[in-house]
């Protein structure tokens, strides 16, 4: 069996700059600016993962973002420590939560927030004794 490892997540956005600023301000992502084929490019590093931001222009034929929940890729999760403090900080910054911090089963506390273009992001605080 081949060995698969994560390379990146690709997000399409009508405003890559605003999307990058949101991820930087709200989640501490590192913004990486470069040029690709003569055009500006913005990528992010978040939790060790690469997130590529692709600009969407009117008439590109790209569908509108779906309303969650939906089939296919539904959300991505970020592991944190002290989720209540993290959630309080994000709320103070104006982040919209779609699910408040809660304990769905012993050993894990989660919450969901809405990112740019309706992206659903889960925060997880796992108790190592349940791993």
Structure description:
The protein is an alpha/beta fold. The protein has two domains: 1-57, 2,3-Dihydroxybiphenyl 1,2-Dioxygenase, domain 1; 74-131, 2,3-Dihydroxybiphenyl 1,2-Dioxygenase, domain 1 (Roll), CATH 3.10.180. The protein is 17% helix and 43% strand. The chain is built from two helices and eight strands. A four-stranded mixed beta sheet has the order 1-4-3-2. Strands 5-8-7-6 form a four-stranded mixed beta sheet. Strand 7 and strand 8 (120-126) form a beta hairpin.
What structural category characterises the helix and strand content? Answer: alpha/beta
CATH superfamily of the largest domain: 2,3-Dihydroxybiphenyl 1,2-Dioxygenase, domain 1
> Can you tell me the CATH architecture of the largest domain?
Roll
CATH topology of the largest domain: 2,3-Dihydroxybiphenyl 1,2-Dioxygenase, domain 1
Helix content: 10-25%
N→C terminal distance: 26 Å
Strands, count: 8
Order of helices and strands: EHEEEEHEEE
Into how many domains do the coordinates divide? 2
Strand content: 35-45%
Radius of gyration: 16 Å
Write down the overall geometry.
globular
What is the highest CATH level, the class of the largest domain?
Alpha Beta
| Main beta sheet | 4 strands, mixed
State the strand order across the main sheet: 1-4-3-2
Low-confidence stretches: none
Mean pLDDT score: 91
Label this structure with key terms.
2,3-Dihydroxybiphenyl 1,2-Dioxygenase, domain 1; 131 residues; 4-stranded mixed β-sheet; globular; 17% helix; alpha/beta; 2 domains
């Amino acid at each position: 069996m081949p060995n698969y490892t994560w390379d990146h997540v690709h997000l399409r956005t009508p405003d890559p700059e605003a999307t990058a600023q949101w991820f930087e301000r709200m989640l501490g992502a590192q913004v990486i600016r470069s040029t690709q084929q003569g055009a500006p490019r913005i990528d992010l590093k978040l939790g060790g993962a690469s997130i590529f931001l692709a600009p969407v222009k009117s008439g590109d034929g790209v569908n509108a973002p779906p309303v969650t929940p939906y089939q296919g890729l539904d959300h991505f999760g970020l592991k944190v420590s002290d989720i209540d403090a993290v959630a309080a900080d994000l709320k103070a910054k104006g982040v919209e939560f779609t699910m408040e911090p809660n304990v769905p089963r012993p050993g894990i506390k989660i919450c969901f927030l809405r990112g740019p273009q309706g992206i659903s992001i889960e925060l997880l605080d796992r108790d190592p004794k349940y791993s």
